[in-house]
Amino acid sequence: MRERWVIGNWKMNGTLQRNRELLDALKALAPTRARIAVCVPSVFLPQTAELLAGTAIAWGAQDVSAQPNGAYTGQISSSMLQEFGASVAIVGHSERRLFNAESNEDVAKKALAAANAGLRPVVCVGESLAEREAGRAEAVVGAQLAACTEALARFPALPVIAYEPVWAIGTGKTASPEQAEAMHAFLRSELANISPEARQVPILYGGSVKPSNAAELFAQPNIDGGLIGGASLVAADFLAIAAA
Ligand code: PGA
Question: Domains of the chain by range and CATH?
Fold first, then answer.
């Protein structure tokens, strides 16, 4: 059976005080079928590691360097993250593709660097509204996945894929369960072409997931959980989504 995941992406939000309140509230999480993780700004990893130690909630980063170490001012390597107990790392989020000009090739290198250091890469893919309206959604998302094919085939542990249509991120517009499922089914068949194991890669949906739409999205046959932005900052919402 494929793994299920619900992963919070805090983006550039949080303060020591607010994180403590949020993480303390998340400790009330009842056992779920899904594995739960929060991806926090890296400066908060020591605090997160301390507060979540001994719980079932995993923690991780929102990006990694493609390099192992060296003269890369401002970057953080996967092995550094691992020292803080991080077990997952988001790579290729659309905000990084957009604001940091990350290419499909950059994302593939980061995914491989994370996996080589023992982190579970959460590789984000997704089309813009213009690309969807031009009928190019599958071509764009397929190319984003294909760039990672080599990395996928070489992964020591299966990565996680997150389908996040750019037009649904932080906009309140969720892809309908049918729209999301259609893209997930496409991704599943592309993964099956890579290897039989790749078929088992969990594919999460992200983009305005909230307590009111989570259950319907997660009930789709090829949706294995969610990558949650805004709603992961509100303990009650994140807990409700994890329960769904
Ligand atoms: P959102 O963000 O849930 O706020 O739409 C999702 C994401 O960007 O990972």
Answer: 5-233 (3.20.20.70)
